[in-house]
Specification:
Mean pLDDT: 84
Protein name: Glycosyltransferase RgtA/B/C/D-like domain-containing protein
Distance between the termini: 70 Å
InterPro entries: RgtA/B/C-like (IPR038731)
Helix content: 55-70%
Number of domains: 2
Pfam families: PMT_2 (PF13231)
Keywords: Membrane, Transmembrane, Transmembrane helix
Strand order of the largest sheet: 2-1-3-5-4
Shape: globular
Protein backbone atom coordinates (compact mmCIF):
# COMPACT_ATOMS: atom_id res chain seq x y z
CA UNK A 1 0.00 0.00 0.00
CA UNK A 2 1.52 3.33 -1.07
CA UNK A 3 1.98 5.86 1.72
CA UNK A 4 1.41 9.55 0.80
CA UNK A 5 4.57 11.66 0.80
CA UNK A 6 3.33 13.86 3.63
CA UNK A 7 3.07 10.74 5.85
CA UNK A 8 6.58 9.42 5.26
CA UNK A 9 8.04 10.52 8.61
CA UNK A 10 7.08 9.10 11.98
CA UNK A 11 6.28 12.57 13.32
CA UNK A 12 3.92 13.20 10.39
CA UNK A 13 2.14 9.87 10.96
CA UNK A 14 1.73 10.57 14.68
CA UNK A 15 0.46 14.09 13.93
CA UNK A 16 -2.00 12.68 11.38
CA UNK A 17 -3.46 10.26 13.97
CA UNK A 18 -3.80 13.11 16.47
CA UNK A 19 -5.44 15.31 13.83
CA UNK A 20 -8.02 12.61 13.04
CA UNK A 21 -8.61 12.23 16.78
CA UNK A 22 -9.16 15.97 17.21
CA UNK A 23 -11.49 16.26 14.21
CA UNK A 24 -13.62 13.35 15.44
CA UNK A 25 -13.76 14.82 18.93
CA UNK A 26 -14.69 18.29 17.67
CA UNK A 27 -17.49 16.72 15.62
CA UNK A 28 -18.70 14.78 18.66
CA UNK A 29 -18.76 17.96 20.76
CA UNK A 30 -20.68 19.74 18.02
CA UNK A 31 -23.34 17.02 18.14
CA UNK A 32 -23.39 16.84 21.94
CA UNK A 33 -23.93 20.29 23.51
CA UNK A 34 -24.28 19.06 27.08
CA UNK A 35 -22.36 16.82 29.45
CA UNK A 36 -23.23 13.89 31.68
CA UNK A 37 -24.79 14.64 35.04
CA UNK A 38 -21.71 13.80 37.08
CA UNK A 39 -19.81 16.56 35.28
CA UNK A 40 -22.01 19.17 36.93
CA UNK A 41 -21.42 17.55 40.31
CA UNK A 42 -17.70 18.10 39.71
CA UNK A 43 -18.48 21.73 38.85
CA UNK A 44 -20.37 22.15 42.14
CA UNK A 45 -17.39 20.59 43.96
CA UNK A 46 -15.02 22.95 42.11
CA UNK A 47 -17.18 25.92 43.07
CA UNK A 48 -17.00 24.90 46.74
CA UNK A 49 -13.21 24.38 46.57
CA UNK A 50 -12.76 27.79 44.90
CA UNK A 51 -14.32 29.27 48.05
CA UNK A 52 -12.05 27.11 50.27
CA UNK A 53 -14.92 24.84 51.30
CA UNK A 54 -14.63 21.04 51.28
CA UNK A 55 -18.19 19.63 51.43
CA UNK A 56 -18.47 17.05 54.19
CA UNK A 57 -20.85 14.87 52.17
CA UNK A 58 -18.83 14.98 48.92
CA UNK A 59 -17.95 11.46 47.76
CA UNK A 60 -15.66 12.56 44.92
CA UNK A 61 -11.93 13.08 45.28
CA UNK A 62 -10.58 16.61 44.79
CA UNK A 63 -7.83 16.70 42.14
CA UNK A 64 -10.02 16.84 39.02
CA UNK A 65 -12.33 19.44 40.58
CA UNK A 66 -9.30 21.53 41.53
CA UNK A 67 -8.05 21.74 37.94
CA UNK A 68 -11.58 22.62 36.76
CA UNK A 69 -11.61 25.80 38.89
CA UNK A 70 -10.14 28.12 36.18
CA UNK A 71 -13.13 27.26 33.97
CA UNK A 72 -15.48 28.58 36.66
CA UNK A 73 -13.54 31.78 37.10
CA UNK A 74 -12.59 32.81 33.56
CA UNK A 75 -14.73 31.00 30.97
CA UNK A 76 -17.58 28.63 30.24
CA UNK A 77 -16.82 25.62 32.49
CA UNK A 78 -18.08 23.08 29.92
CA UNK A 79 -15.89 24.52 27.14
CA UNK A 80 -12.91 24.76 29.48
CA UNK A 81 -13.48 21.19 30.72
CA UNK A 82 -13.66 19.84 27.18
CA UNK A 83 -10.47 21.65 26.16
CA UNK A 84 -8.82 20.32 29.33
CA UNK A 85 -9.71 16.64 28.82
CA UNK A 86 -8.82 16.90 25.11
CA UNK A 87 -5.40 18.29 26.00
CA UNK A 88 -4.88 15.51 28.55
CA UNK A 89 -5.94 12.93 25.93
CA UNK A 90 -3.37 14.25 23.46
CA UNK A 91 -0.68 14.02 26.16
CA UNK A 92 -1.79 10.44 26.75
CA UNK A 93 -1.38 9.59 23.05
CA UNK A 94 2.10 11.13 23.08
CA UNK A 95 2.95 9.09 26.17
CA UNK A 96 1.62 5.91 24.55
CA UNK A 97 4.09 6.47 21.72
CA UNK A 98 7.02 7.22 24.06
CA UNK A 99 6.28 4.28 26.36
CA UNK A 100 5.90 1.83 23.46
CA UNK A 101 9.06 3.07 21.75
CA UNK A 102 11.06 2.88 24.97
CA UNK A 103 10.06 -0.78 25.30
CA UNK A 104 10.19 -2.06 21.72
CA UNK A 105 12.35 0.49 19.83
CA UNK A 106 10.14 0.33 16.71
CA UNK A 107 8.11 3.31 15.53
CA UNK A 108 5.57 1.17 13.65
CA UNK A 109 4.67 -0.67 16.88
CA UNK A 110 4.37 2.67 18.67
CA UNK A 111 2.16 4.23 15.99
CA UNK A 112 -0.09 1.17 16.00
CA UNK A 113 -0.47 1.54 19.77
CA UNK A 114 -1.36 5.23 19.39
CA UNK A 115 -4.02 4.41 16.76
CA UNK A 116 -5.50 1.65 18.93
CA UNK A 117 -5.75 3.97 21.91
CA UNK A 118 -7.02 7.03 20.05
CA UNK A 119 -9.76 5.20 18.13
CA UNK A 120 -10.93 2.76 20.78
CA UNK A 121 -14.67 3.49 21.21
CA UNK A 122 -14.38 3.14 25.00
CA UNK A 123 -11.44 5.52 25.30
CA UNK A 124 -12.66 8.04 22.75
CA UNK A 125 -16.09 8.45 24.31
CA UNK A 126 -15.24 8.41 28.03
CA UNK A 127 -12.10 10.53 27.70
CA UNK A 128 -14.23 13.05 25.76
CA UNK A 129 -16.51 13.59 28.73
CA UNK A 130 -15.59 16.14 31.39
CA UNK A 131 -15.00 13.42 33.98
CA UNK A 132 -11.97 11.90 35.71
CA UNK A 133 -11.41 9.22 33.03
CA UNK A 134 -9.00 11.24 30.84
CA UNK A 135 -6.90 12.46 33.77
CA UNK A 136 -6.77 9.11 35.55
CA UNK A 137 -5.89 7.24 32.33
CA UNK A 138 -2.99 9.63 31.80
CA UNK A 139 -1.73 9.26 35.38
CA UNK A 140 -1.88 5.44 35.19
CA UNK A 141 0.16 5.35 31.97
CA UNK A 142 2.58 8.00 33.28
CA UNK A 143 3.14 5.93 36.43
CA UNK A 144 4.24 2.90 34.41
CA UNK A 145 6.38 5.02 32.10
CA UNK A 146 8.16 6.54 35.10
CA UNK A 147 8.49 3.12 36.73
CA UNK A 148 10.25 1.89 33.59
CA UNK A 149 12.73 4.76 34.02
CA UNK A 150 13.25 3.89 37.72
CA UNK A 151 12.30 7.35 39.02
CA UNK A 152 10.71 6.21 42.28
CA UNK A 153 10.18 9.59 43.94
CA UNK A 154 8.39 10.84 40.80
CA UNK A 155 6.46 7.55 40.74
CA UNK A 156 5.31 8.24 44.30
CA UNK A 157 4.10 11.71 43.27
CA UNK A 158 2.11 10.30 40.33
CA UNK A 159 0.56 7.55 42.47
CA UNK A 160 -0.39 10.16 45.08
CA UNK A 161 -2.05 12.30 42.41
CA UNK A 162 -3.86 9.25 41.03
CA UNK A 163 -5.07 8.37 44.53
CA UNK A 164 -6.74 11.77 44.93
CA UNK A 165 -8.27 11.57 41.44
CA UNK A 166 -10.10 8.24 41.66
CA UNK A 167 -10.35 5.58 44.34
CA UNK A 168 -8.78 3.11 41.91
CA UNK A 169 -5.53 5.03 42.50
CA UNK A 170 -5.10 2.86 45.59
CA UNK A 171 -4.82 -0.18 43.29
CA UNK A 172 -2.17 1.60 41.22
CA UNK A 173 0.05 2.25 44.23
CA UNK A 174 -0.33 -1.28 45.63
CA UNK A 175 0.67 -2.78 42.26
CA UNK A 176 4.25 -1.48 42.58
CA UNK A 177 4.86 -2.57 46.18
CA UNK A 178 5.52 -6.34 45.60
CA UNK A 179 8.15 -5.54 42.95
CA UNK A 180 10.13 -3.31 45.31
CA UNK A 181 9.86 -5.83 48.13
CA UNK A 182 10.91 -8.76 45.93
CA UNK A 183 13.89 -6.73 44.72
CA UNK A 184 14.66 -5.88 48.40
CA UNK A 185 15.01 -2.28 47.29
CA UNK A 186 13.95 -0.88 50.67
CA UNK A 187 15.51 2.55 50.12
CA UNK A 188 13.47 3.16 46.97
CA UNK A 189 10.45 1.57 48.64
CA UNK A 190 10.56 4.25 51.35
CA UNK A 191 11.12 6.98 48.73
CA UNK A 192 8.19 5.68 46.67
CA UNK A 193 5.75 5.16 49.54
CA UNK A 194 6.31 8.44 51.42
CA UNK A 195 3.95 10.68 49.40
CA UNK A 196 1.20 8.18 48.52
CA UNK A 197 0.71 7.36 52.21
CA UNK A 198 -0.58 10.89 52.87
CA UNK A 199 -2.85 10.75 49.81
CA UNK A 200 -4.18 7.35 50.86
CA UNK A 201 -5.04 8.75 54.28
CA UNK A 202 -7.38 11.23 52.59
CA UNK A 203 -8.77 8.54 50.30
CA UNK A 204 -9.65 6.13 53.10
CA UNK A 205 -11.19 8.87 55.24
CA UNK A 206 -13.41 9.89 52.31
CA UNK A 207 -14.15 6.27 51.39
CA UNK A 208 -15.28 5.28 54.91
CA UNK A 209 -17.65 8.25 55.09
CA UNK A 210 -18.87 8.08 51.51
CA UNK A 211 -21.94 6.49 49.87
CA UNK A 212 -19.58 5.53 47.01
CA UNK A 213 -19.25 1.94 48.28
CA UNK A 214 -23.02 1.51 48.40
CA UNK A 215 -23.60 2.30 44.72
CA UNK A 216 -22.91 -1.24 43.38
CA UNK A 217 -25.63 -2.58 45.71
CA UNK A 218 -28.27 -0.84 43.59
CA UNK A 219 -27.41 -2.99 40.58
CA UNK A 220 -29.15 -6.34 40.15
CA UNK A 221 -26.54 -8.93 39.22
CA UNK A 222 -27.09 -12.11 37.26
CA UNK A 223 -24.61 -14.73 36.06
CA UNK A 224 -24.87 -13.22 32.57
CA UNK A 225 -23.93 -9.76 33.86
CA UNK A 226 -20.32 -10.84 34.24
CA UNK A 227 -19.96 -11.64 30.55
CA UNK A 228 -19.52 -7.91 29.97
CA UNK A 229 -15.95 -8.14 31.33
CA UNK A 230 -14.52 -10.78 28.93
CA UNK A 231 -16.66 -9.28 26.15
CA UNK A 232 -15.30 -5.82 26.90
CA UNK A 233 -11.72 -7.10 26.90
CA UNK A 234 -12.25 -9.00 23.67
CA UNK A 235 -13.53 -5.94 21.80
CA UNK A 236 -11.81 -3.22 23.83
CA UNK A 237 -10.18 -1.65 20.76
CA UNK A 238 -13.26 -1.77 18.56
CA UNK A 239 -11.97 -4.53 16.26
CA UNK A 240 -12.71 -8.23 15.88
CA UNK A 241 -9.55 -10.11 16.97
CA UNK A 242 -8.22 -12.91 14.83
CA UNK A 243 -5.45 -13.83 17.26
CA UNK A 244 -5.61 -14.13 21.04
CA UNK A 245 -2.44 -13.69 23.14
CA UNK A 246 -1.46 -17.16 24.31
CA UNK A 247 0.32 -18.46 27.38
CA UNK A 248 3.33 -19.08 25.12
CA UNK A 249 4.09 -15.36 25.35
CA UNK A 250 4.36 -15.68 29.14
CA UNK A 251 6.37 -18.89 29.03
CA UNK A 252 8.98 -17.19 26.82
CA UNK A 253 9.63 -14.53 29.48
CA UNK A 254 12.51 -15.07 31.88
CA UNK A 255 11.91 -14.90 35.62
CA UNK A 256 13.66 -11.52 35.67
CA UNK A 257 11.33 -10.16 32.98
CA UNK A 258 8.26 -11.56 34.73
CA UNK A 259 9.26 -9.79 37.96
CA UNK A 260 9.87 -6.57 36.03
CA UNK A 261 6.43 -6.77 34.41
CA UNK A 262 4.69 -7.82 37.64
CA UNK A 263 3.34 -4.30 38.47
CA UNK A 264 1.72 -4.18 35.03
CA UNK A 265 0.16 -7.64 35.50
CA UNK A 266 -0.96 -6.92 39.07
CA UNK A 267 -2.64 -3.67 38.09
CA UNK A 268 -4.58 -5.41 35.30
CA UNK A 269 -5.59 -8.27 37.64
CA UNK A 270 -6.62 -5.93 40.47
CA UNK A 271 -8.58 -3.75 38.06
CA UNK A 272 -10.47 -6.68 36.54
CA UNK A 273 -11.25 -7.97 40.04
CA UNK A 274 -12.75 -4.57 40.82
CA UNK A 275 -14.76 -4.72 37.59
CA UNK A 276 -16.37 -7.99 38.70
CA UNK A 277 -17.47 -6.24 41.90
CA UNK A 278 -18.76 -3.22 40.01
CA UNK A 279 -20.27 -4.52 36.79
CA UNK A 280 -22.80 -1.66 36.87
CA UNK A 281 -20.04 0.88 36.12
CA UNK A 282 -18.80 -0.91 32.99
CA UNK A 283 -17.73 -0.28 30.29
CA UNK A 284 -16.72 3.13 31.68
CA UNK A 285 -14.08 1.55 33.92
CA UNK A 286 -12.28 0.04 30.92
CA UNK A 287 -11.19 3.54 29.89
CA UNK A 288 -8.12 3.78 32.10
CA UNK A 289 -6.83 0.34 30.98
CA UNK A 290 -6.87 1.15 27.27
CA UNK A 291 -3.76 3.39 27.01
CA UNK A 292 -1.85 0.83 29.07
CA UNK A 293 -3.04 -2.20 27.09
CA UNK A 294 -2.56 -0.46 23.75
CA UNK A 295 1.24 -0.58 24.23
CA UNK A 296 1.62 -4.39 24.09
CA UNK A 297 -1.38 -4.67 21.74
CA UNK A 298 0.29 -2.55 19.06
CA UNK A 299 3.33 -4.79 19.09
CA UNK A 300 1.27 -7.97 19.16
CA UNK A 301 -0.87 -6.99 16.17
CA UNK A 302 2.04 -6.03 13.91
CA UNK A 303 4.53 -8.72 14.90
CA UNK A 304 2.36 -11.83 14.66
CA UNK A 305 3.06 -14.44 11.99
CA UNK A 306 0.30 -15.91 9.88
CA UNK A 307 1.47 -19.49 9.48
CA UNK A 308 -1.67 -20.92 11.13
CA UNK A 309 -4.23 -19.34 8.83
CA UNK A 310 -7.00 -21.81 9.61
CA UNK A 311 -6.62 -21.13 13.34
CA UNK A 312 -6.73 -17.38 12.70
CA UNK A 313 -9.91 -17.70 10.64
CA UNK A 314 -11.55 -19.89 13.28
CA UNK A 315 -10.70 -17.42 16.05
CA UNK A 316 -12.02 -14.50 13.98
CA UNK A 317 -15.28 -16.38 13.27
CA UNK A 318 -15.64 -17.34 16.94
CA UNK A 319 -15.13 -13.72 18.06
CA UNK A 320 -17.62 -12.58 15.41
CA UNK A 321 -20.13 -15.07 16.80
CA UNK A 322 -19.58 -13.77 20.34
CA UNK A 323 -20.04 -10.21 19.13
CA UNK A 324 -23.35 -10.91 17.37
CA UNK A 325 -24.62 -13.02 20.28
CA UNK A 326 -23.80 -10.42 22.94
CA UNK A 327 -25.20 -7.60 20.84
CA UNK A 328 -28.48 -9.33 20.09
CA UNK A 329 -29.14 -10.79 23.52
CA UNK A 330 -27.56 -8.52 26.14
CA UNK A 331 -27.03 -5.11 24.54
CA UNK A 332 -23.74 -4.61 26.33
CA UNK A 333 -22.29 -1.19 25.65
CA UNK A 334 -19.30 -2.21 23.57
CA UNK A 335 -18.20 -1.89 19.98
CA UNK A 336 -21.37 -0.95 18.09
CA UNK A 337 -25.10 -0.69 18.75
CA UNK A 338 -26.78 0.58 15.58
CA UNK A 339 -27.71 -1.86 12.79
CA UNK A 340 -26.51 0.39 9.96
CA UNK A 341 -23.10 0.90 11.56
CA UNK A 342 -22.97 -2.83 12.35
CA UNK A 343 -23.32 -3.84 8.70
CA UNK A 344 -20.61 -1.40 7.57
CA UNK A 345 -18.32 -2.55 10.39
CA UNK A 346 -18.77 -6.23 9.53
CA UNK A 347 -18.06 -5.59 5.85
CA UNK A 348 -14.84 -3.72 6.69
CA UNK A 349 -13.80 -6.37 9.23
CA UNK A 350 -14.38 -9.16 6.71
CA UNK A 351 -12.25 -7.29 4.15
CA UNK A 352 -9.51 -6.87 6.75
CA UNK A 353 -9.37 -10.56 7.61
CA UNK A 354 -9.30 -11.52 3.91
CA UNK A 355 -6.46 -9.04 3.30
CA UNK A 356 -4.46 -10.51 6.17
CA UNK A 357 -5.14 -14.22 5.87
CA UNK A 358 -5.61 -14.73 2.13
CA UNK A 359 -3.42 -11.96 0.72
CA UNK A 360 -0.95 -11.55 3.61
CA UNK A 361 -1.25 -7.75 3.34
CA UNK A 362 -0.62 -6.57 6.90
CA UNK A 363 -0.60 -2.87 6.09
CA UNK A 364 -3.88 -3.11 4.16
CA UNK A 365 -5.46 -5.20 6.92
CA UNK A 366 -4.41 -2.76 9.65
CA UNK A 367 -5.67 0.21 7.61
CA UNK A 368 -9.03 -1.50 7.16
CA UNK A 369 -9.14 -2.44 10.84
CA UNK A 370 -8.45 1.20 11.73
CA UNK A 371 -11.33 2.28 9.49
CA UNK A 372 -13.52 -0.27 11.27
CA UNK A 373 -12.52 1.25 14.61
CA UNK A 374 -13.67 4.66 13.36
CA UNK A 375 -17.03 3.15 12.39
CA UNK A 376 -17.48 1.52 15.81
CA UNK A 377 -16.34 4.75 17.48
CA UNK A 378 -18.99 6.72 15.58
CA UNK A 379 -21.66 4.21 16.47
CA UNK A 380 -20.79 4.16 20.17
CA UNK A 381 -20.57 7.96 20.37
CA UNK A 382 -23.70 8.57 18.28
CA UNK A 383 -25.69 6.35 20.59
CA UNK A 384 -24.96 8.63 23.56
CA UNK A 385 -24.81 12.01 21.83
CA UNK A 386 -28.34 12.99 22.91
CA UNK A 387 -27.87 12.15 26.57
CA UNK A 388 -29.84 14.65 28.70
CA UNK A 389 -30.42 16.87 25.66
CA UNK A 390 -34.13 17.24 26.50
CA UNK A 391 -33.24 18.58 29.96
CA UNK A 392 -30.60 20.91 28.50
CA UNK A 393 -33.03 22.43 25.97
CA UNK A 394 -35.71 22.90 28.61
CA UNK A 395 -33.27 24.71 30.90
CA UNK A 396 -32.41 27.15 28.14
CA UNK A 397 -36.11 27.96 28.04
CA UNK A 398 -36.44 28.04 31.84
CA UNK A 399 -33.67 30.62 32.14
CA UNK A 400 -36.13 33.20 30.82
CA UNK A 401 -38.80 32.39 33.42
CA UNK A 402 -39.45 34.47 36.52
CA UNK A 403 -40.68 32.86 39.72
CA UNK A 404 -40.00 29.80 41.85
CA UNK A 405 -39.20 26.64 39.87
CA UNK A 406 -39.46 23.15 41.32
CA UNK A 407 -37.63 20.15 39.87
CA UNK A 408 -36.84 16.53 40.75
CA UNK A 409 -34.44 15.33 38.05
CA UNK A 410 -31.11 13.99 39.22
CA UNK A 411 -29.14 14.60 36.05
CA UNK A 412 -27.26 17.44 37.76
CA UNK A 413 -28.03 19.84 34.92
CA UNK A 414 -30.92 21.70 36.52
CA UNK A 415 -29.07 22.44 39.72
CA UNK A 416 -26.16 23.86 37.72
CA UNK A 417 -27.76 25.81 34.88
CA UNK A 418 -30.49 27.31 37.06
CA UNK A 419 -28.35 27.86 40.15
CA UNK A 420 -28.95 31.62 39.99
CA UNK A 421 -32.72 31.18 39.71
CA UNK A 422 -35.26 30.63 42.48
CA UNK A 423 -35.27 26.81 42.36
CA UNK A 424 -36.22 24.14 44.87
CA UNK A 425 -35.67 20.38 44.74
CA UNK A 426 -38.79 18.24 45.11
CA UNK A 427 -38.41 15.27 47.44
CA UNK A 428 -41.56 13.23 47.90
CA UNK A 429 -40.56 12.42 51.50
CA UNK A 430 -40.80 16.12 52.36
CA UNK A 431 -43.38 17.45 49.89
CA UNK A 432 -46.97 16.16 49.54
CA UNK A 433 -47.82 15.11 45.99
CA UNK A 434 -50.45 17.78 45.41
CA UNK A 435 -50.47 20.70 42.99
CA UNK A 436 -52.23 22.83 45.61
CA UNK A 437 -49.33 22.28 47.98
CA UNK A 438 -46.88 23.54 45.33
CA UNK A 439 -49.02 26.60 44.69
CA UNK A 440 -49.35 27.39 48.41
CA UNK A 441 -45.54 27.33 48.67
CA UNK A 442 -45.15 29.91 45.90
CA UNK A 443 -44.11 27.48 43.15
CA UNK A 444 -44.90 28.88 39.72
CA UNK A 445 -43.21 26.35 37.40
CA UNK A 446 -42.37 22.62 37.53
CA UNK A 447 -39.83 20.73 35.41
CA UNK A 448 -40.84 17.11 34.80
CA UNK A 449 -38.45 14.71 33.04
CA UNK A 450 -37.88 10.99 32.64
CA UNK A 451 -34.18 11.45 31.93
CA UNK A 452 -32.07 9.53 34.47
CA UNK A 453 -34.99 8.77 36.79
CA UNK A 454 -37.88 6.96 35.13
CA UNK A 455 -39.95 7.20 38.34
CA UNK A 456 -40.01 11.02 37.95
CA UNK A 457 -41.19 12.13 41.36
CA UNK A 458 -43.09 15.10 39.88
CA UNK A 459 -45.07 12.84 37.57
CA UNK A 460 -48.23 13.42 39.61
CA UNK A 461 -48.45 16.82 37.91
CA UNK A 462 -49.23 15.04 34.63
CA UNK A 463 -52.28 13.20 35.96
CA UNK A 464 -55.58 13.92 34.21
CA UNK A 465 -57.09 15.10 37.49
CA UNK A 466 -54.57 17.98 37.61
CA UNK A 467 -55.05 19.30 34.08
CA UNK A 468 -57.10 22.26 35.26
CA UNK A 469 -54.33 23.30 37.69
CA UNK A 470 -51.32 23.16 35.36
CA UNK A 471 -50.46 24.29 31.84
CA UNK A 472 -47.61 22.83 29.77
CA UNK A 473 -45.54 25.67 28.33
CA UNK A 474 -42.53 23.72 26.97
CA UNK A 475 -41.77 20.18 25.80
CA UNK A 476 -38.68 18.53 24.32
CA UNK A 477 -38.73 14.88 23.22
CA UNK A 478 -35.91 12.57 22.12
CA UNK A 479 -36.60 9.18 20.53
CA UNK A 480 -33.99 6.89 22.11
CA UNK A 481 -34.25 3.68 20.07
CA UNK A 482 -37.98 3.51 20.64
CA UNK A 483 -37.99 4.83 24.20
CA UNK A 484 -39.28 8.41 24.31
CA UNK A 485 -37.21 10.60 26.63
CA UNK A 486 -38.77 13.94 27.42
CA UNK A 487 -38.63 17.05 29.57
CA UNK A 488 -41.69 19.26 30.10
CA UNK A 489 -42.16 22.55 31.89
CA UNK A 490 -45.53 23.19 33.50
CA UNK A 491 -46.90 26.46 34.78
CA UNK A 492 -48.91 26.23 37.98
CA UNK A 493 -52.16 28.15 37.35
Amino acid sequence: MTVPLFLKSTRAKFSFICLIFLLLRAFFYFLSPTELGDTYNFFHFSDALSHFIYPVTEKRLPLFSLILIPGLLFSDPVVYGRVLVTGISLLTLFLVYRYSFSLFKKSNFSLASVALCALSPFYFYWSSRVLTEALFSFLVLLAFYIFYRKKYFALGIICALAAITRYEGVILMISFIPYLLIKKDFRNFVIFISLPVFALGLVFIRLLNSPYLLEPSGFHYSPWSFFIIPAGLLFIFGIIPHRIPSLNLISKCSVKKMIEYSPFALFIIFSLSLFFLWVAALPRLFCFLIPLLSVPAGRFILSQNNDKKIVNILIWCLCLGFLIYFRQNYRFQFLFLDKGFALVFLLISFSAIISLIALNKKSVAFTLATLGMVVSLFSYSFYFKDVYISVYKSLQFANNLEGKIIYSDETGLTGWYLKNKNIVYFDDTEWPERVKSLKSNGVRYAIVTNEFDELRRLVFIEKKSNRSEVKMIFEKKINDRGYMRYTRIYEII
